[in-house]
């Protein structure tokens, strides 16, 4: 048996691309890293492996904790981490969901080709940047009153349909049809609501973006046809989350858990894993607040898409409907969800915590929109702004290997501080335009430096691992044309 040794952790190779930290000491289950050797080398460069091992001490965790091939250090729980925790005997951990509740991506397809866009890139990127607010703490397209915040926290994208920012078809092509019905607006603090009510329709900061892309490769023509994708087609990828509202929800409940469940907290190896016991009042309250924040994030991405449709109408001087600007799919990256999975031959209800991980259900699952059910759930995996992104299809092995999950992106290999030391935003921006014909506009040069292509893992290798393990099947590859960042 081959092993991989770090300073404090030894992993054993289970098979190609699967490495395990064996159960020992206080661990309730083993931990698994899904990675090639080169990706494992990058993953082991920060505290990811220690955080993954710590995760195995959460009460009620089943089977094993999992780290995806794009994994990197997060808050307590690694980004790229997945944990299936028993819904009766386990717990709910806000840190295992993350501060940006339902950070996620949606892809909108069009009937435009790359030739249709050629010559409009500067106008398009400038107009998108003007129409869609971005940047740290900034406001959004909408500023609503407190009553309206409650309405959209409860209804999700259904609110956007009623308000004229979505059409019915958008609902049917969104994970959970754009609404978590368990949401309870009263479980969300007024401070969280006030932070969010002026940020609807905004990207925020960090790695959030809106990217106009062209389809460069189709790997599975049959599934691509079901998804409405073809070579040279223009698509739009939107990546943002629940903004200040979701951040405040996480902050509020971490503080409440630390106060009310100190005994459980003291038993964990990292206070950032603070968790409320399943069945407790606080766990129930957090779950309904998290679901409300998830609904908020879906509305946020929906309004950004609405703005994008209007920009395309302006630039191309025709209705968005005539350009086929339809939602392909929207997936969440940071969430906990009640799901039924087979554990040791028995179906059990679990809180599946996904943090920087994408649900990847295979064909036949009733949770998948009917239009895609026969082929499998679309999985959207962004690369960096200088490399390709991928559309995958959920694989059968995901249900047995990863609680129905796969990667969510390329994954960072360099901190933002280090990136700003090594790259100059203006140089990165100019090189992307001159060498790759990618037009980038951001709130600041520092943002571009922080998001330079070289700060991310090799997206092609991340996808290759997903494909090799059968947890995500490549359907198409896209490449950036225009990008706006926070």
What are the SSEs and their pairings?
Blueprint: E1 3-5, E2 10-15, E3 18-21, E4 31-34, H1 37-43, H2 48-55, E5 65-72, E6 79-86, E7 91-92, E8 104-113, H3 114-117, H4 121-131, H5 146-155, H6 157-163, H7 168-172, H8 190-196, E9 209-218, H9 221-227, E10 233-240, H10 243-260, H11 262-267, E11 276-277, H12 281-316, E12 326-332, E13 334-343, E14 346-355, E15 358-359, E16 378-381, E17 389-394, H13 398-401, E18 405-406, H14 416-422, H15 425-436, E19 439-442, H16 445-450, H17 459-469, E20 472-485
Parallel strand pairs: 4-5, 19-20
Antiparallel strand pairs: 1-2, 2-3, 3-4, 5-6, 6-14, 7-11, 8-10, 8-12, 9-10, 9-20, 13-14, 15-18, 16-17, 17-20
Keywords: GTP-binding, Ligase, Manganese, Metal-binding, Nucleotide-binding
Family: Belongs to the RtcB family.
Binding site for Mn(2+) 2: 239, 333
């Amino acid at each position: 048996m081959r092993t991989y040794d770090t300073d404090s952790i030894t992993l054993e190779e289970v098979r190609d691309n699967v490495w395990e930290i064996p159960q020992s000491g206080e661990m309730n289950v083993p931990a698994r890293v899904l990675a090639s050797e080169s990706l494992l080398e990058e993953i082991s460069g920060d505290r990811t492996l220690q955080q993954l091992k710590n995760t195995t001490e959460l009460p009620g965790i089943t089977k094993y904790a999992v780290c995806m091939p794009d994994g990197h250090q997060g808050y307590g729980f690694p980004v790229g981490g997945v944990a299936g925790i028993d819904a009766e005997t386990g717990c709910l951990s806000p840190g295992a969901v993350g501060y940006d509740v339902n950070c996620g991506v949606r892809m909108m397809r069009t009937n435009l080709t790359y030739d249709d866009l050629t010559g409009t890139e500067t106008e398009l990127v400038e107009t998108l940047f003007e129409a869609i607010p971005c940047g740290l703490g900034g406001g959004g397209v909408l500023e609503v009153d407190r009553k309206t915040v409650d309405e959209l926290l409860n209804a999700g994208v259904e609110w956007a349909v009623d308000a004229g920012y979505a059409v019915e078809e958008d609902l049917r092509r969104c994970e959970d049809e754009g609404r978590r019905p368990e949401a309870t607006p009263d479980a969300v603090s007024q401070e969280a609501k006030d932070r969010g009510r002026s940020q609807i329709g905004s990207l925020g900061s960090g790695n959030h973006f809106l990217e106009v892309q062209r389809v460069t490769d189709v790997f599975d023509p049959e599934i691509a046809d079901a998804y409405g994708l073809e070579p040279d087609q223009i698509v739009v990828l939107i990546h943002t989350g629940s903004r200040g509202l979701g951040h405040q929800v996480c902050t509020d409940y971490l503080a409440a858990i630390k106060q009310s469940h100190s005994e459980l907290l003291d038993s964990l190896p990292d206070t950032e894993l603070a968790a409320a016991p399943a069945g407790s009042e606080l766990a129930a309250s957090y779950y309904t607040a998290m679901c409300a924040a998830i609904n908020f994030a879906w509305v946020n991405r929906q309004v950004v898409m609405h703005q994008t449709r209007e920009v395309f109408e302006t630039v191309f001087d025709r209705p968005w409907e005539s350009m086929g600007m339809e939602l392909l799919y929207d997936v969440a990256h940071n969430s906990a969800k009640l799901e039924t999975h087979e554990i040791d031959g028995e179906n059990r209800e679990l809180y599946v915590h996904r943090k920087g991980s994408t649900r990847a259900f295979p064909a036949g699952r009733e949770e998948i929109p009917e239009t895609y059910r026969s082929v499998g759930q679309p999985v959207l995996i962004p690369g960096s702004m200088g490399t390709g992104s991928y559309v995958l299809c959920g694989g059968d092995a995901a249900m047995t290997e990863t609680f129905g999950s796969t990667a969510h992106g390329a994954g960072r290999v360099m901190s933002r501080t280090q990136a700003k030391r090594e790259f100059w935003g203006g140089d990165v921006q100019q090189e992307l335009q001159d060498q790759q014909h990618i037009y980038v506009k951001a709130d600041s040069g520092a943002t571009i430096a922080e998001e330079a292509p070289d700060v991310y893992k090799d997206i092609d290798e991340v996808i290759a691992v997903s494909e090799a393990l059968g947890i995500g099947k490549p359907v198409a590859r896209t490449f950036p044309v225009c990008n706006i960042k926070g």
